[in-house]
Amino acid sequence: MSYVSRAPLNEAWHPGGFLVSRPNGHRHIDRGTFTGAVKVQPGTVMGKKTVGTTAVAAALGTNTGNGTFGAITVGAAQAGAYTVEFDDATHYIVADPAGKQVGHGTTGVAYNAGGLGFTITAGGTAFAPGDSFTVTVAAGTGLWVPCTKTATDGSQIAAGISFGLVDATLNDTPGAVVVRDCEVNTSELVWDASMDAPAKTAALAQLLALKIIGR
Predict the structure, then answer these.
(1) Measured between alpha carbons, how far is 70 from 133 in angstroms, rounded to an integer?
(2) pTM for the whole thing?
(3) CATH match of 19-50+142-214 with 1.10.760.10
(4) How far apart are CA 212 and CA 214, in angstroms?
(5) Separation between Cα atoms, residue 182 and residue 170, nearest integer Å
(6) What is the dihedral of CA 104, 108, 112, 114, to 10 degrees?
(7) Which of 4, 34, 76, 119 has its CA 20 to 30 A from that of 87?
(8) Within 10 A of 211 (CB to CB), how many other CB atoms are there?
């Protein structure tokens, strides 16, 4: 008896190949614009640039104190209005746009927590309890890039999975992103090189919150 020799069949990455189940129609998919000078494979875990790089401070009402804000740096913050409220002449509390406290600070000392960095300098008139400021962090571009552990623009949070191959090496390019209501084969997901085991675990939890279930 003779046998015909055949080369092994290696299945290539193809659009949606990572999906285990999905709803009827296209409820699980949104259109987006991919950026970052990269070629994105089907199944790549994606993040979205939701946070800008700039922030602006302004008094929230009429303050007693006349201290000033220095330059503001934006790290892994949220887009929207943070509040800075003084407890006394020199101490303040910072809350994020959802009202959650993210840090405490002191005038004349560099503050760095909750994704923001700044220094409030005391003026000739001391602050009073209740004096407050808003620090408004600009929104990001909304563009999609591979989810990256070290990003600070919102793309460090897993927000979807690329449905197909998208080549954004030369220009920003439209593509389809799986963003909800499906099951996926985790062994077929593609990750940015920065995503170590803990980062992948966190990303899968973030996808689960979107009802993207890893199997």
Answers:
(1) 13
(2) 0.85
(3) no
(4) 7
(5) 31
(6) 40
(7) 76
(8) 12
